């Protein structure tokens, strides 16, 4: 087992090293240039997200598709992941994480556009789309489409389910003294109630849960920033300065240099918003829309909310808290989870409460979002006959997650996520002319 774990760790480190990070960031920049800065339409996308298109083909509203995508991207990475980036790369990592979100909006836009354009209607009238259909119908590379669907289906059990339930179990055990076994059963039961209803049920819950948890978390972070008001501007200056300068110390914080800040900031940003992974466009394909560009504009706002807003706010909360309480940085020793816990604990009751509710709701929403992604990948591979088996296995994974050794699960999920990226980028880069042509036709 040790040899297997070491082998997967080596493969994971290789796949998520500079080559893949550079390829993803390069795709973000490439599509930003080719779409002539599609990010400038972000507020138009926000407006379109709350406007229904009656009579258009699809299963859920544009807002339902957006919140389903946000459900999967809003996860522990927005909270603990940002803390890990700061712990390992210094405060400058927050800037690179934020910048990744800004440029990643172009990739999310391109993915969603292609997903809607090449979506299909199944035998039972459902709309299905995603990188597997783009690769199959657009590029006629069925073998690569099968690989993407296989990676996506398998990854959903790890990063989408087991890892998230384990995070809920850990915070419930530590903060509420609830046994992990009970948490697993409850999480599995609640997920089953939603998942067996299909995309309409998942989207219906996400439409209510995502806005609530987002506003609650952002409001809580605002309360902490008010408490840290005298360190907000020093924290901003430190984040920007240490993104471009070697490890100078500030208020107890020490940067790891430009390379470290870039590596961990970009990696956390990419992992948090999933831009380029090919997962979020699966939800976009189910939207009721008359134009691929219209839904793509809506979908691009997911990366805006996830990284440009939520991850940036989390980073500012953590850096300002650490600068106000320098002993935190000395105690965590590179542990992002501990750093986050100690930073939020600086405000008794309120801080830990925000962290607990944030982790539980963010993680549960990810369980729902990834369940739908896994279902779509399963349907592509095995048709509708495989859905019951997939759903049952997904629920059992959720129930058992708190007692599973997650080191190997986490690393395997990371590997599978990286393997999803590669065929998805093939579809994006090879079909970039289609993205440009559709964009010009709709936006002029």
TrEMBL record:
Q: What is this protein called?
A: AGCS family alanine or glycine:cation symporter
What does the record give under GO molecular function? amino acid:sodium symporter activity
Provide GO CC annotations from the record: plasma membrane
Spell out the coiled coil positions from the record.
none
Asked whether the keyword Transmembrane is assigned, the reply is yes
Question: Upper lineage ranks?
Answer: Bacteria, Bacillati, Bacillota, Clostridia, Lachnospirales
As for subcellular location, the record says: Cell membrane
Please give the PANTHER family that the UniProt record associates with this protein: AGSS FAMILY TRANSPORTER, SODIUM-ALANINE (PTHR30330), TRANSCRIPTIONAL REGULATOR, LRP FAMILY (PTHR30330:SF3)
Report if keyword Cell membrane is assigned.
yes
List residues traversing the bilayer: 15-33, 143-170, 182-202, 209-227, 239-262, 304-323, 343-371, 392-410
> Which InterPro entries would you find in this protein's record?
Na/Ala_symport (IPR001463)
Q: Which domain of life is it from?
A: Bacteria
Which family is it part of?
Belongs to the alanine or glycine:cation symporter (AGCS) (TC 2.A.25) family.
Under the heading Pfam families, the entry gives:
Na_Ala_symp
UniProt membrane topology term: Multi-pass membrane protein
Which UniProt key words apply to this protein?
A: Cell membrane, Membrane, Symport, Transmembrane, Transmembrane helix, Transport
Principal localization?
membrane
């Amino acid at each position: 087992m040790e040899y297997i774990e070491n082998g997967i760790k080596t493969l994971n480190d290789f796949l998520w090293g500079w080559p893949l990070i550079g390829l993803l960031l390069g795709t973000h920049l490439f599509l930003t240039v080719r779409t002539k800065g599609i990010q400038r339409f972000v507020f138009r996308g926000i407006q379109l997200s709350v406007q229904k298109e009656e009579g258009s083909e699809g299963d859920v509203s544009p807002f339902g598709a957006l919140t389903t995508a946000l459900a999967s991207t809003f996860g522990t990475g927005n909270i603990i992941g940002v803390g890990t980036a700061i712990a390992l790369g210094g405060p400058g990592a927050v800037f690179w994480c934020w910048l990744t979100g800004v440029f990643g909006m172009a990739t999310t836009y391109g993915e969603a556009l292609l997903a809607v354009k090449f979506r299909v209607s199944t035998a039972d009238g459902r709309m299905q789309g995603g990188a597997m259909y783009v690769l199959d119908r657009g590029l006629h590379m069925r073998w690569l489409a099968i690989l993407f669907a296989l990676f996506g289906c398998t990854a959903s059990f790890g990063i989408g389910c087991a890892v998230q339930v384990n995070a809920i179990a850990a915070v419930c055990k530590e903060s509420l003294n609830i046994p992990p076994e009970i948490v697993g059963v409850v999480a599995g039961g609640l997920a089953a109630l939603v998942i067996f209803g299909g995309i309409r049920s998942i989207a219906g819950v996400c439409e209510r849960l995502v806005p609530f948890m987002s506003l609650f978390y952002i409001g809580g972070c605002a309360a902490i920033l008010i408490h840290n008001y005298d360190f907000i501007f020093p924290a901003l200056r430190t984040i920007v300065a240490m993104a471009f300068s070697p490890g100078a110390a500030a208020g107890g914080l020490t940067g790891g240099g430009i390379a470290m800040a870039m590596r961990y900031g970009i990696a956390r940003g990419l992992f948090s918003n999933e831009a380029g992974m090919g997962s979020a466009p699966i939800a976009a394909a189910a939207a009721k829309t008359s134009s691929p560009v219209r839904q793509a504009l809506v979908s691009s706002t997911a990366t805006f909310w996830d990284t440009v807003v939520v991850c940036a706010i989390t980073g500012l909360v953590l850096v300002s808290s650490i600068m106000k309480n320098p002993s935190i940085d000395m105690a965590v020793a590179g542990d992002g989870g501990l750093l986050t816990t100690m930073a939020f604990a600086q405000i008794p009751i309120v801080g830990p409460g925000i962290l607990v509710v944030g982790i539980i709701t963010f993680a549960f929403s990810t369980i729902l979002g990834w369940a739908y992604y896994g279902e779509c990948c399963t349907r592509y591979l095995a048709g509708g006959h495989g859905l019951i088996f997939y759903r049952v296995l997904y629920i059992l994974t959720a129930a058992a997650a708190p007692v599973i050794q997650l080191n190997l699960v986490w690393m395997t999920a990371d590997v599978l996520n990286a393997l999803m990226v590669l065929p998805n980028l093939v579809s994006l880069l090879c079909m970039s002319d289609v993205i440009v042509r559709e964009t010009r036709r709709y936006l002029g």
